[in-house]
Amino acid sequence: MSKRPRLPVATFLAGALAILCSLWAIPGRAQDAAPFRIGIAPHTSARVIIEQYQPVRRALEAAVGQPVEIITAPDFTVFAQRALEQDYDLAITTGHQAQLLKSDAGYRPVLTYKADFRAVVVTAAGSPYTNAESLRGTTVLGLNPSSLVTLWGQQWLKDTNKITDVQIRYVSAADSVAQIVLSGDASAGFMSLANRHKLAPEVQAKLTTLVESPAMAGRVYLLNARKAALLPRIHDALLAFGATAEGKTYFDTNALGGYREISDAELATMEPLAEEVRRVLKAKP
């Protein structure tokens, strides 16, 4: 019985490599190997964001058929910069940055949350800071030059008796704003109403709200234009997720109210604050 001739090792390896290369050349294989990146504006700590968005991640992973990762950025300005550089497949950020990404980088709005987004200006209860005028010459805290609550708060100061002689100091999170205000190291601070409600009850009781903003476009889901073919699938998957028990728990836990559609006209009202983000980015070294 004759033996089958063995291929030289070099020939065998070359053939195997050719097969592997042909597999990678199949359309979609290389793309599927990379995770679908959801970038979420840093409205709280990275740990909390990653934990909070796990139900959304799981729902979208099934929809896009590839691994999905949740990422954020050190601050709102860096987030906007990375989003404009096309770092995210799906971006979730407040209305003013959503308008920026739509108009300047081609992102497609998908959905937003039903719950109103409002900014508040808080002071320590019983402090002498009881109105905008009393803040003249003091230090007021914001979250970041590009955050919606900070930009709205700064505009409120300018619109109220043309107050411009306030030093704005930036900190990383709403709980830090509250602690510094209560310690007396700042007269007031800007934060979202939702984050005010998330503070410990004893901290909330020690704060007074000077003013509350009108409702504004809150966190908006935007799809990168390079993933535009996935828009109907992602839109429908999110709505389906919202109807599940896990989705309802997610909305209830985070006081989000569910998903709703968002129009181009609604986002267009945020253009003045989007322009402020452009100004901040241009000034960034």
Explain this structure to me?
This protein is an alpha/beta fold and 285 residues long. The protein has 2 domains: 33-116 and 217-283, Periplasmic binding protein-like II (D-Maltodextrin-Binding Protein, domain 2), CATH 3.40.190.10; 119-212, Periplasmic binding protein-like II (D-Maltodextrin-Binding Protein, domain 2, 3-Layer(aba) Sandwich), CATH 3.40.190.10. It contains 14 helices and 11 strands. It has helices spanning 9-25, 29-33, 46-52, 54-64, 76-84, 95-105, 148-159, 174-183, 193-198, 201-204, 231-242, 245-253, 264-268, 271-283; strands at 36-40, 68-71, 90-93, 108-113, 119-124, 139-142, 167-170, 188-192, 207-212, 220-223, 259-260. The strands form 2 sheets. A 6-stranded mixed beta sheet has the order 2-1-3-10-4-11, sandwiched between helices. A 5-stranded mixed beta sheet has the order 7-6-8-5-9, sandwiched between helices. α4 (54-64) packs across α11 and α6 (95-105) packs across α14. The longest helix is centred in the first third of the chain and has 17 residues, at 9-25. The termini are far apart.
